[in-house]
From TrEMBL, chain A:
Organism: Hymenobacter metallilatus
A Pfam family: PBP_dimer
Compartment annotation: Cell membrane; Membrane
An annotated GO BP: proteolysis
Protein name, as recorded: Penicillin-binding protein 2
Transmembrane residue ranges: 9-28
PANTHER family in the record: PEPTIDOGLYCAN D,D-TRANSPEPTIDASE, PEPTIDOGLYCAN D,D-TRANSPEPTIDASE MRDA
Automatic annotation (TrEMBL), chain B:
Membrane-spanning intervals of the chain: 12-35, 55-78, 85-105, 165-187, 194-212, 218-235, 242-261, 334-355, 367-394, 400-421
Encoding gene, per UniProt annotation: rodA
Any one GO CC term of the record: plasma membrane
A GO term, aspect molecular function: lipid-linked peptidoglycan transporter activity
Membrane topology: Multi-pass membrane protein
Chief place where the protein resides: membrane
Organism expressing this protein natively: Hymenobacter metallilatus
Protein name (Swiss-Prot/TrEMBL): Cell wall polymerase
Lineage of source species: Bacteria, Pseudomonadati, Bacteroidota, Cytophagia, Cytophagales
Length: 612, 432
């Protein structure tokens, strides 16, 4: 039987084979495959999120603008709904039967066992009306939550709104911490300052057993965090002034931006047509949002940040400053008002210096200023000379914060466009364009695009004689100041002396006899205004009117740009509007004889968006 | 007892005893972890009465272990010749017990297989294993498998098959399958390896028939057989009838799988096999056990969550956590290192048992040793296999680890009878 003894090795080999298979399989599921660990956490960990109190928003003077009020969501757990008396239920909620049916269907599709909202944003009185009867409807419950409420009917575009997070947002890494159904700032400051306003969520990890019964804190609460309330925002916007500006802009399309040039703080921010911020909050918000979205006047369009227009004559100032800095012209340089180069605005005296040129807004003058700045004879080839010259000119112009986002604390901002040499190379072909192609830029027409905010920032820069702080809405977060990037002074690379050389011209636009901006004069109340009118040619319809100014000219406290679409000549519509706002800001009131301006509506009156 | 206790004690295989104690100790730690509740008093041993303590599985397991020690002493004290002598008597008694059990037992979890003796519940099927092992070893000692005496083989088969048939009748299929393990012991004693090969081949074919479309399987097999004939004309001449009948049997099996599956297996057994192939087939039923058990083990990682830190096993996600699924606690709390140590412990024990069996002079002792190894091995395979999704969910415990008196005592008895036989052999040697 000796040979049978060898079989002990066979038996042991079988044992070992199984042991090795097991060890390998265990190594795979325990060490290599991480999915079981995730599955284990999904099994036992329940994450309870405590949403912190969202930060409040105050205006410049400490008046509260946005606060939180409790609202209630009617939740439904489809599985627990038993024999629903639909008729009575709908009567109680005062909702159409179809809406309730749709809602229940959606809830069922989401989950049969988890609660989902059936009706959102019930106010406290609405809740009181249904709460006592809710006991007759098993499966329905009420969940309290904080929602935004507004103490102002203005600045909807600046404030933005808060809404439930959408699936598209959830996919962005910035919103990784958010859960479906949570609320967050969707636009405006609510969105830009989401992190500060949101505060920090408190998260408690609870362990649950297979029946969902709590079994205490996970690892003794080691990973739990307390919620921290959001920080309040202190805006630089002045709600009284804003309200006044919105009243003036009612029925028009366009924008008003006013800055405190010394700080870059935005004092007024109007995008017309306007709407009440409360429109995008509370029950029925979705429907109202759709109404705004489909409105042909596009009230949701944030014009001061997103509408880029050719700036028109106001841009002549930048053109002049750049040329002065390059040293190719002096304030005493005169150019003939040569209509063969470009048509001028009107017949006027010979522009023998920059002051007259600005006052008369002489197109041929600034044509020649820019030509002098661009065509420097860097190359004997005039095409190449234009290429090199435009590139240099553009570099200088862009220092004014043009052609790039300024970096305001709102995300919708557009860059605008200061066309480069490459731009024309692509459009017209290399060496297929020269100064005659780009001259429109000199008078702020053509391919150039500037936002209202950028224009206001140019005014602030001129007011400051060469520097600016990035415009911003929020001058204080919680107990602290603004974000650090708003405390950095930017200079535009133009010597202060050159600003002094053009400001008298701007003053004469407003206060000089026959100036294009005489309507904006506040000389009667002792304030000298420096400004520039503009009329932007609009191929699609009536010209747009702009007026950009700052005051007082010698010690500027406010810089403003008013832009009114399809209102024609800037001096007659935009200028008086700007002066009213400046006067109101500087004096706290408007001289009685100017009240007539307030009623004056240059825009077509039928373009009126329902406004508080 | 025919010699001094000291000499007898020296002849006991202490290495096996040590491995046994290690396994029972580690097992108890895991039973404690599986039945531990953070809500329980901090110091239960001093603050609770005995009857209150008996509500905890970990405490009951201490009692069962204590009883097992007493049992060990008794087993070693009994004149080891008695196991040889009374093997058939025990077997007869066991058969009687298995027959009457379904009539006197109360139904528990769908089967009438538990006998209640006061506070204890015993499962005769557990003890049928060592009794059958003794009986077949005794019978084996008197025959020679190699001489192919058909009558002897028939009796042996009958001895082996009678207990599992009775157990199946009591609806404890899992315990009945264990008797298949005796084939390994018979193989060592001279059973033709063909039987093992054929069974293995049958198993492979059955699994393939469930996984692969049947026509492919038939086609592939026919091609292989045809190819063999085409290249070897000798086969053609000498083995045609045999080959054809093998072919027919295989084809029959492939198509018989469905019949077996749908008509022979009970629905819950069918589910268990379906779940093995596709765990998501029944995620809240049988699939639940497999999935949750894999999650518990898989979440342990390399070093585990630490003693008493398991969440899956503690919060009842894994069913039968202290009995059949005790391995999940090992895996979750001690990680891969823990499961590896467990596997190594089993391999060491099995290797030692084979070593002890091989040094027996008597066929009885050796066969019995192999029976012990085979039974423990079968439990090891099926129990761990089911927790990691490699074997169907069959309700059999992990030897020495799982909670429960019946299982602990039956494996203790199984093992220590071998040690008693071994000790006696050594004494015999010393005497001469």
């Amino acid at each position: 039987m000796q040979y049978l003894e060898g079989r002990k090795y066979v038996v042991q080999a079988i044992f070992l084979t199984v042991a090795l298979v097991f060890a390998a399989r265990l190594f795979y599921i325990q060490v290599l495959d991480g999915s079981y660990k995730l599955a284990a956490d999904r099994n036992t960990l329940q994450r309870i999120v405590q949403t912190p109190y969202r930060g409040l928003i105050y205006d410049r003077k400490g008046q509260i603008l946005v606060q939180n009020t409790p609202v209630y969501d009617l939740m439904v757990v489809p599985r627990e709904v038993k024999q629903l008396d639909t008729a009575r239920f709908c009567q109680l909620l005062q909702l159409p039967v179809e809406e309730v049916r749709e809602g229940l269907k959606a809830a069922k599709a989401f989950s049969r066992v988890k609660a989902s909202p059936l009706v959102q944003n019930l106010s406290t009185p609405e809740l009181a009306a249904i709460q006592d009867n809710l006991i007759d409807f098993p499966g329905f419950s009420v969940k309290a939550r904080m929602a935004r409420s507004y103490n102002t009917h203005t600045m909807a575009h600046a404030l933005g709104y808060v809404g439930a997070i959408t699936p598209a947002f959830l996919e962005k890494p910035r919103y990784a911490k958010y859960q479906p159904g949570e609320f967050l700032g969707i636009t405006g400051l609510e969105s830009y300052y989401e992190d500060q306003l949101m505060g920090r969520r408190g998260v408690q990890y609870r362990m649950v057993n297979v029946r969902g019964i709590e079994k205490g804190a996970f690892r003794g609460g080691e990973f739990d965090t307390l919620s921290v309330a959001g920080q309040d925002l202190h805006l630089s916007l002045d709600s009284e002034l804003q309200e006044y500006a919105e009243k003036l802009m009612a029925g028009k399309r366009g924008s008003v931006v006013a800055l405190d040039p010394k700080t870059g703080e935005i004092l007024v921010f109007v995008s017309a047509p306007m709407f009440d911020p409360a429109t995008l909050s509370g029950k029925g918000m979705g429907n109202r949002y759709m109404e705004l979205l489909n409105n042909p006047e596009r009230p949701l369009f944030n014009r001061p940040l997103m509408a880029t227009y050719p700036p028109g004559s106001t841009f002549k100032l930048v053109n002049e400053l750049v040329a002065l800095q390059m040293g190719v012209v002096t304030p005493q340089t005169g150019f003939p008002c040569n209509w063969k180069l470009v048509r001028c605005t009107h017949r006027h005296e010979y522009p023998s210096n920059v002051g007259i040129a600005i006052k008369q807004s002489c197109n041929p003058y600034f044509y020649q200023v820019m030509r002098t700045a661009v065509m420097r004879g860097r190359s004997t080839n005039r095409f190449e000379d234009a290429r090199l010259g435009l590139a240099e000119w553009r570099r200088q112009v862009m220092q004014f914060g043009l052609g790039e986002k300024l970096g305001v604390d709102m995300s919708q901002e557009k860059k605008g466009l200061i066309p480069s040499s490459d731009f024309y190379d692509k459009r017209n072909g290399y060496h297929r364009w020269n100064f005659r192609t780009v001259y429109s830029l000199s008078i702020g027409q053509g391919e150039i695009g500037i936002t209202g905010l950028q224009m206001a920032n140019i005014m602030a820069t001129i007011a400051n004689r060469g520097w600016y702080y990035t415009p911003h809405f929020v001058k204080g977060i919680g107990q602290g100041g603004p974000l650090p990037q708003f405390q950095v002074k930017h200079t535009v690379g133009v010597d202060p002396i050159h600003f002094e050389e053009i400001i008298p011209g701007m003053q004469s636009v407003v206060d000089g006899r026959g100036g294009t901006g005489n309507n904006a004069s506040l000389l009667d109340v002792g304030i000298s205004v420096a400004g520039k009118t503009g009329t932007v040619q609009n191929p699609h319809g009536d010209d747009h009117a702009t007026f950009a100014a700052f005051a007082p000219a010698e010690d500027p406290k406010i810089a403003i740009v008013v832009f009114i679409e399809n209102a024609g000549f800037g001096g007659s519509s935009a200028a008086p509007l700007a002066s009213l706002i400046m006067e109101k800001y500087l004096r706290g009131k408007v001289a009685p004889w100017r009240h007539r301006w307030e009623e004056w509506l240059p825009g077509p009156a039928e373009r009126f968006v329902k406004h508080h | 007892m025919n010699s001094s206790p000291a000499r007898y004690s020296r002849s006991i295989d202490w290495i096996t005893v040590l491995i046994y104690l290690l396994m029972v100790g580690v097992g108890w730690l895991n039973v404690y972890a599986a039945s531990y509740s953070p809500d329980a008093p901090a110091n239960p041993l001093s603050s609770l009465s005995f009857s209150e303590l008996m509500a905890f599985n970990w405490f009951k397991q201490i009692v069962w272990i204590g009883a097992a020690v007493v049992l060990i002493v008794v087993l070693l004290v009994i004149e080891s010749k008695a196991y040889d002598t009374f093997a058939f008597v025990l077997y007869g008694g066991m058969i009687l017990l298995l027959i009457v059990t379904p009539f006197i037992a109360r139904p528990i979890a769908g089967s009438r297989s538990w006998l209640e003796l006061g506070p204890m519940r015993l499962q005769p099927a557990e003890f049928a294993k060592f009794v059958t092992a003794l009986a077949v070893s005794r019978y084996m000692a008197g025959i020679n498998l190699r001489q192919q005496n058909f009558r002897d083989q028939l009796v042996l088969a009958g001895l082996t098959l009678l207990p599992p048939l009775l157990i199946i009748a009591a609806n404890e299929t899992g315990q009945a399958l264990v008797f298949g393990a005796f084939l390994l012991a018979y193989f060592r004693e001279g059973m033709s390896p063909l039987i093992l090969l054929i069974l293995a081949a049958a198993g492979v074919i059955l699994i393939l028939a469930l996984l692969v479309p049947k026509l492919w399987l038939v086609g592939a097999f026919t091609l292989i057989l045809g190819g063999a004939f085409a290249f070897n004309s000798k086969l053609w001449r000498h083995h045609l009838p045999l080959s054809l009948s093998v072919w027919a049997v295989v084809i029959g099996m492939v198509f018989g799988v469905d019949f077996f599956f749908n008509n022979v297996l009970q629905p819950h057994q069918r589910k268990r096999i379906e779940v093995l192939i596709n765990p998501s087939a029944d995620p809240l039923g049988v699939g639940w056990n497999v999935t949750q058990s894999k999650i518990a083990i898989g979440s342990g990682g390399l070093t585990g969550k630490g003693f008493l830190q398991g969440t899956q096993t503690k919060f009842d996600f894994v069913p039968e956590q202290s009995t059949d699924f005790i391995f999940c606690t090992v895996g979750e709390e001690w990680g891969w290192l823990g499961t590896l140590v467990t596997i190594v412990l089993f391999m060491t024990l099995l290797g030692r048992i084979v070593y002890v069996a091989e040094r027996q002079k008597s066929v009885f002792g050796r066969t019995y040793g192999y029976c012990v190894a085979s039974i423990i091995f079968f439990h090891f395979c099926v129990n761990i296999g089911m927790t990691i999704g490699l074997a169907p969910v069959v309700g059999i415990p992990l030897p020495f680890f799982s909670y429960g008196g019946s299982s602990l005592w039956s494996f203790t008895t199984l093992l220590f009878i071998l040690l008693a036989i071994d000790a006696y052999r050594k004494q015999d040697l010393e005497r001469y």
